[in-house]
Amino acid sequence: MHRSMVIHKYPGPLPRQAVHDEEAPPSMHRRTRVFRLAAVTALAAGLAATAGVAPAAAQKTKALPATTINGSGATFPQGFIDQCRESFRKVQPNVTVNYPNPGGGSGKGRQEFADQVTQWGASDAPYPAADLSKIKGGSFLYVPTVTAPITISYNLPSIKKPLRLTPLNVAKLFQGDITTWNDPLIAADNPGVTLPATKVAIARRSDSSGTTENFTRYLSSAAGSVWKLGAGSTVTWPADAQGGNGNSGVGAIVKATEGAVGYVDYSDAKATGLKFATIRNAAGTFILPSLEAATAALDGVALNADGLYNPLNSPSPKAYPIAAPTFVLVYAKYSDAKVAAAVKAWAEYLVGPCQKQAATVDYAPLPKDWATQTAARLNALG
User: Fold this and answer.
1) pLDDT band at residue 62, thresholds of 50, 70 and 90?
2) Where are the domains of the chain?
3) Residue 24: what pLDDT?
């Protein structure tokens, strides 16, 4: 049975922030991504309690026949997808799940999925309404997987504690209005901090990016009319901004360039050893990006019938304000029964057993009821 797709529209801007005193941010420690299980065991256990459990069909399914399913797209969930691909091999050893590293960006993932170059895709943002008629495979589902912060990472060796940045100052940094790090606007939010006169170097995505879309949507909401560059998977950045391919590419620019500032997913920022700022949230509190703060951003956020949700600029007082959604794209029907079964098993694994692995690679799992709802929607695949 074909499942009709509901088109979700992002909600309008949330109320502007009131100003409150900052909660003292914890210090940031550099850790590598690979095999950090010991360092994150306690956090993983706590977050896994909110994660969904696999539907019985996914837990007890017999081995599927040899099949390859190809995907591409978002680099924001790259670490989670790669982790799940590795562990999925033990569940379905005959199924090969391919995903490039880097994934190519959300724009590429949506395009290749729409053109049926791939059997599944990954995107941090939905299709623009104008593109829906171009999707060759017909009805499809957005499958939410995890959430995580988009960090504002910077390279200022003399600054030892996380900088405090308001949404207005983030906007002004990335559109070139603030050109040196000792600007009075930044100094006003960081009393007692000796800021260097280093020139600001903007690092941004060079590809069509869901991280860019979520970051610019956040600024359109939180900074209002101060933000002049609009929202989308690509925007016109200042001419001297340096472009990087994927989140890891932006992270590499920030790491190599003193004075640089870039928007980088939490997992890549930590793996690269970057410093990142505390950002003032909608409740007026400066919050350091963390998995707990990303989970808090989901408080009061609804999972729509089509699988989309928007945690950006959450009103929750403990929320990190740039917590981003991310999704997997799957068709409701496939002409090849083996491919259909493999895609369904893969999607069920992402919202089921692999949720417990999310925190080990620096992602926050879905709330339990969201995972359950999503697993039920996957019954429509065939």
Assistant:
1) confident
2) 37-147+303-308+321-380, 149-296
3) 38
118 contacts 112 by C-beta, under 8 angstroms:
yes
In this structure, CATH architecture of domain 37-147+303-308+321-380: 3-Layer(aba) Sandwich (3.40)
- Look over the chain and give the mean of its residue pLDDT values, rounded to a whole number: 88
Q: How many beta carbons lie within 10 A of that of residue 53, not counting itself?
A: 16
250-308 pLDDT, tens digit per residue, is 999 999 999 999 999 999 999 999 999 999 999 999 999 999 999 999 988 989 999 99
Strands 242-244 and 286-287 turn out to be unpaired
Q: Are 330 and 143 in contact (CB under 8 A)?
A: yes
pLDDT score for 380: 80
Whole-prediction pTM value?
Answer: 0.83
Distance CA 372, CA 351 (A): 8
Query: Which residues are CB-contacts of 29 (< 8 A; sequence separation ≥ 6)?
Result: none
**Residues whose CB falls within 8 Å of the CB of residue 321, separated by 6 or more in sequence, listed in order:** 167, 218, 222, 279, 280, 281, 282, 287, 297, 312, 313, 314
Domain 37-147+303-308+321-380 identical in fold to domain 149-296? yes
Handedness of CA 268, 271, 277, 281 (dihedral sign): positive
> Across-strand partners of 205?
244
Domain 149-296 grouped into CATH 3.40.50.11540: no
Where does residue 259 fall: left (phi above 0), alpha (psi -120 to 50 degrees), or beta otherwise? Answer: left
**CA-based nearest residue to 194, from 186, 202, 203:** 186
What burial class does residue 240 get, using C-beta atoms within 10 Å of its C-beta: 0-12 exposed, 13-18 middle, 19+ buried? exposed
Q: pLDDT of 332-373, one tens digit each?
A: 999 999 999 999 999 999 999 999 999 999 999 999 999 889
- 373 within 8 A of 303, measured Cβ to Cβ: yes
pLDDT-derived band at 60, boundaries 50, 70, 90: low
Peptide bond into 102 cis (omega under 30): yes
